[in-house]
User: Fold these one by one.
Assistant:
Number 1:
Amino acid sequence: MKSRMTLFGCGPKLALLCLPYIILSLIIMIKYPEFLHLQFLDLILFKIIGVLWLGLGLIFWGYSAVYFLKYFKPGTLLIKGPFALCRNPIYSSIIVFIIPALGIIFHSGLTLSIALVLFVGFKISIHGETSVLRKIFGEEYDKYEKSVNEIIPFPRYLLRGIVSN
């Protein structure tokens, strides 16, 4: 197990896990464009939702990537900016926003399945990174982990206000 923080985190492991499925899916989409075509997404409302979701995802991805590249230093726990919304905002932008938005825009169940495969791959590969962060930051990371969602960018403190009222 790694014992230090790296710029790429669990990305390489996630890529190794998911890339074969993604490549196979792209080949199937090109060869058989009607495979897992979701007809009900042909409505203009879904196209609008898909484009808005994609825009939101691209903005969140850009913000997260720039913030990460600007502030990442081994030995520093990022907890502000997009990291105040979820612990893995770059993965979140791709898995929660960009890939599902493309699935909606192109009416593709196969594209939506890529998001699901990426999510499962993320859950499998993130444990090593989490262990390293726990080892380096100890109680500080435990507190952060309890206060911020792993991949859904929604502040938990908002939920506390709703639930307690």
Number 2:
Amino acid sequence: MTTTTPRSQALSARARRRARRDAGSVSVEIAILFPVLLALIVAIVQYGLWFHARSLALAAAQEGVTAARTYGAEPAAGPARAREFLTAHGAGTLTDVTVAPTTPGAGQVGVQVTGRSLSIVPGVPGPTVTQSASGPRERFTTAGAP
């Protein structure tokens, strides 16, 4: 047999009042935190898409430089090879693409790839991606010559 004292009855009454005041507080917390969590997830996915597009643009630029720096290559060989690479491997990951040859210095060739990454937010264009690569043009040399 248990007996309740007036003190324990007062404590349990206080606990019941506190529980009634806190009723629904979890719903409010979730209503505040859910949009923040959703925005964080969207930002992480958008960053992943941008990083992938950036890597793809850099790989295309490097591929273009590899084609442009070969001995006797035409000036348009680099950008053409970069476009072929993007067509084969890009598949819509990089949009609004422009590929341009650059001349970083004497005896150097370069390719710059610019485009936009995909956006997961409708109506908002993806971030701009610009990557370039350069290298020396291949040439024949003789022994003792620079």
Number 3:
Amino acid sequence: MTDFKNRLGALADKIKNEQPATPIQEVIPVKTGKVETEGESRFNNWIPRSLKKKIKAYAVENDISLKDITIEALEEYLKNRTRSLNP
């Protein structure tokens, strides 16, 4: 029991005397593609988990936000949709 107390005391002294080595993380903000010129509103919807996983992976690989991907996809969809309705 004495050996345990001595080892525990030595560990406590070591912790008190050493400076903790805290890792420093670099924070890099996500680049936004477009400058917002009009007001925004919330847009929530349910999508398959597999699709969300693919979108997140694409966003990370291409350094783009999920918001920008969604805006770009919806604008492209509407552009193609109106083109096909008005040939």
